[in-house]
Amino acid sequence: MPKASEIKKHAAIEYNSRVMIVRDIERSVPQGRSGGSLYRMRMYDVVTGGKVDETFKADEMLTLADLIRRPVMFSYIDGDEYVFMDEEDYTPYNLNKSSIEEQVLFVSEDTKGLLAVIVEGSPVSIDLPSSVELVIEDTSPSIKGASASARTKPATMSTGLIVQVPEHISNGDRIKINTDEKKFMGRADN
């Protein structure tokens, strides 16, 4: 059983006899209190989609829920549902856009390393790889000789994600992005 301080975003925990996916964690250290940090977690019920905000002490023990991660690839969009296909047995997993809003900004048809998170037979989330490659759809024109400058400009990816990129990067470039920090890592190897 992990302590609250060891829980990461997108973990599935059992809470009040329900399975919850942790979407966000804020750590705070109250002033004048010995004993340490508090972890405020925004969690979503995997069955109802209901939102719960709860604060745990750093050393409070939490129970991880039984979940399975399956390798998947993005297949298509059907209304508000994103459909992912299991890479091994081709089972389709439908996820409502609202439950994976943050993740879909990093997902294109050729994104590798995606995992569907399945709890009690139902897909509840998508785990992203540590980095993805996306194509820049819109950014201001590149500036010749700007590669030495540290200035950046916003670039919109084909998925709608906006990241800061160096000035010498231009439309149509394929770049590598860190999914945890939403940061530009460099041009992708073609």
From TrEMBL:
Task: Give the top-rank taxon of the lineage listed in the UniProt record for this protein.
Answer: Bacteria
Q: Which GO terms describe its molecular function?
A: translation elongation factor activity
Name a Pfam family for this protein.
EFP
Residue ranges of every copy of the Elongation factor P C-terminal domain listed in the record = 132-187
Q: Does the keyword Protein biosynthesis apply?
A: yes
Q: What does the similarity note say?
A: Belongs to the elongation factor P family.
Know the name of this protein?
Elongation factor P-like protein
Q: Which residues form the Translation elongation factor P/YeiP central domain?
A: 69-124
The answer to whether UniProt assigns keyword Protein biosynthesis to this entry is yes
Protein's gene: efp
Q: Which PANTHER family match?
A: ELONGATION FACTOR P, TRANSLATION ELONGATION FACTOR KOW-LIKE DOMAIN-CONTAINING PROTEIN
Q: Which UniProt keywords apply?
A: Elongation factor, Protein biosynthesis
